[in-house]
Specification:
The chain has twelve helices and 16 strands. The protein is an alpha/beta fold. The protein has two domains: 249 residues, Aspartate Aminotransferase, domain 2, CATH 3.40.640; 119 residues, Aspartate Aminotransferase, domain 1, CATH 3.90.1150.10. The longest helix has 32 residues. It is globular and about 70 Å long. The chain binds pyridoxal-5'-phosphate. Pyridoxal-5'-phosphate binds next to α3 and α4. One of its GO terms (molecular function) is pyridoxal phosphate binding.
Length: 385
Amino acid sequence: MKYSLASSTWDEKEKNAMLEVIETGMYTMGEKVKSYEEKFANYFGSKYAVMVNSGSSANLLATAALFYRKNNALKPGDEVIVPAVSWSTTYHPLQQYNLHLKFVDIDLDTLNYDLEALKNAVTEKTRMILAVNLLGNSNDFDEISKIIGDRDIILLEDNCESMDSEFNGIKTGTFGLMGTFSSFFSHHISTMEGGMVVTDDEELYHIMLSMRSHGWTRHLPDQNMVTGKKSNDPFEESFKFVLPGYNLRPGELHGAVGIEQLKKLPRLIEQRRKNAQIFQKLFSDHPYLRIQKEVGASSWFGFSMVLKDNAPYSRNEFVELLNQHEIECRPIVSGNFLKNPVLKHYDYSVGGVVKNAEIIDQKGLFVGNHHYDLKEQLMHLKSVL
Ligand SMILES: Cc1ncc(COP(=O)(O)O)c(C=O)c1O
């Protein structure tokens, strides 16, 4: 039996939504994207949402925006704390903006920050903490907020793997000043490529509207927090550039698909959580496998397994065994990111000792979760292990 990593959640609804856009002949960002953004912001409980062409672009846009606030803007050299396990494009925008990255170990059970290590890593130099909710699992935002205390530290969330996960009944991605999401194919919902930044901060929202589109004023409201009042002359405002931006815009087809996918999201997550219950029942007392410990209500991107010291086989043998039984698996995101050669381009330091990231790097992997019943696949997995 094949147990795949990811599967499509599209049907006629997405196809029809795309056909509707195709009928208009207009494919560039327009009303569908706008409507998707409004629905997205509403669903997650944020004031504003800005759609971009990937989760990576969402991280880039959020980082960039922080450099152009009127007050308290980030500056090159500022220190940002990051977890030692995440995706490459969690980190790259920080490098590209010449920030100093301070890597902190993760917790072997939750796979998010080791909270003690995080606490010890925060100093008067810390300007920002980037919290990554890994594989659908929320960080403990009560603890992070205690660690920050009354210090002037920005909390930013990379929620690209954890759409619709909750902590204390609040959606992840909304705890930070901004939160980023991905709707790449293998994620909870798919616009094939796509990302989103949410925020309650109007100034950052306006900065992102400009920086997403060439740094121009065209998409800014008439009265806005970047330029103040726009001129009444559309000709003048059509090619007026006020911020060093990019073109990170999604296409209209992606927005139209997003609207349909968002309608399905509660059902998709419900089934993912049911699958997780089966996974937990089968593997929580496993003699030599450690599974992810849920914090809040996870949206279960996938199911991680880390070999304990007494495991009868190595990780390579583990992968081989799964391959033989047609069970697809992947490393736990980047593993220990510090071991990647790209680090030679980074300005960075390490807060404490990164030992758990190394363990999951050497001994961990994850298998997929889906929006359909996985009982048979999970029983198959259990029979192999
Ligand atoms: C934690 C994290 N951040 C950012 C991204 C980038 O998202 P995208 O693939 O949409 O660019 C990913 C990708 O899966 C991710 O896992």
